[in-house]
Amino acid sequence: MDGASFGAARAGTAFQPVEFLREPQTILRVTSWIFAIVVFGSIVNEGYVNHENPELHCVFNKNESACNYGITIGLIAFLACIAFFIVDIYFPQISSVKDRKRVVLLDMGFSGFWAFLWFVSFCFLANQWQRTESNASTAQGGDAARAAIAFSFFSIISWVGLTIKALQRYRLGTDMSLFATDNFDTSGTSGYPGYPTGSGVETTETYQSPPFTETLDTSPKGYQLPAY
Fold first, then answer.
1. Which residues cross the membrane (predicted)?
2. What pLDDT does 180 receive?
3. CA–CA distance, 181 with 159 (Å, rounded to integer)
4. R_g of the chain, CA atoms, integer Å
5. In Å, how far are 22, 50, 58, 114, 206 from 53, measured between CA atoms?
6. Based on the number of CB atoms within 10 Å of its own CB, is 37 exposed (0-12), middle (13-18) or buried (19 or more)?
């Protein structure tokens, strides 16, 4: 099952851990989670140094905003990955078409926005690191600074990948009319549209558009092949 089929999973299907962990979207989600840990963890642990005084300064050109930005973006990305990971697990259980559409749009919008914020983080941290004076204190926190910069760049790629996967899932839903099932009458009082007038088919069965990806029955009960 590829990423597209995951996006079109049937409502109510059982959760399959092995298949879920093989999904490209899941791999990207876990990768982004790890990258976020590296960025904010590096800054928190070794991103503040002192030189000839007990007061700690941000290793990025003593710019506290640079450290705070990297920590904030990384921490929120870390929490968001966990939240969306849980949503991905329960996504097949969401029966409401509108709720599924909202989840996919939220994933796509957040991932795209965070990819942009990671781009800002990479440019900001790299710029401040270039302006940092070389001394014993900066050498001490140099590895952490370079790690934060490198994994900010890697995070751009992973979050762009998540945005693309969400976009593919949304397009799949649109192309298969998965988000348009609310256009059908779900009250159970109208018959299944699609039979041409004068086809000679008569049935008392009524049909509802099932949630999201349920396949409509093309061979309704009561229909018999004409005998020749």
1. 30-49, 69-91, 103-127, 147-167
2. 47
3. 30
4. 26
5. 51, 6, 14, 37, 80
6. middle
Map 149-218 to HEC letters.
HHHHHHHHHHHHHHHHHHHHHHHHHHHCCCCCHHHCCCCCCCCCCCCCCCCCCCCCCCCCCCCCCCCCCC
Under 8 Å CB-to-CB from 77, ≥6 apart: which residues? 32, 33, 35, 36, 39, 114, 118, 155, 159
User: Backbone dihedral region of 172: left (phi > 0), alpha (psi from -120 to 50 degrees) or beta?
Assistant: alpha
Average pLDDT in the chain: 78
Residue recorded with tokens 């649109």:
174
Token couple for 218:
């093309």
Distance between CA atoms of 148 and 154, rounded to whole angstroms? 10
15 vs 25, residue with greater confidence: 25
Q: Are 9 and 91 in contact (CB under 8 A)?
A: yes
Round to whole Å and give the CA distance between 26 and 166: 12
Residue 37 CA to residue 6 CA, distance in Å, equals 27
Kindly state the tokens that stand for 96.
Answer: 């409401």
Which structure tokens are listed for 198? 């004068």
Q: Once rounded to an integer, what is the mean pLDDT over residues 146-170?
A: 95
Task: Give how far the C-alpha of residue 210 lies from the chain's centroid of Cα atoms, to the nearest Å.
Answer: 25
Give CA–CA dist 185/193, Å, rounded: 10
3: nearest Cα among 168, 163, 155: 168
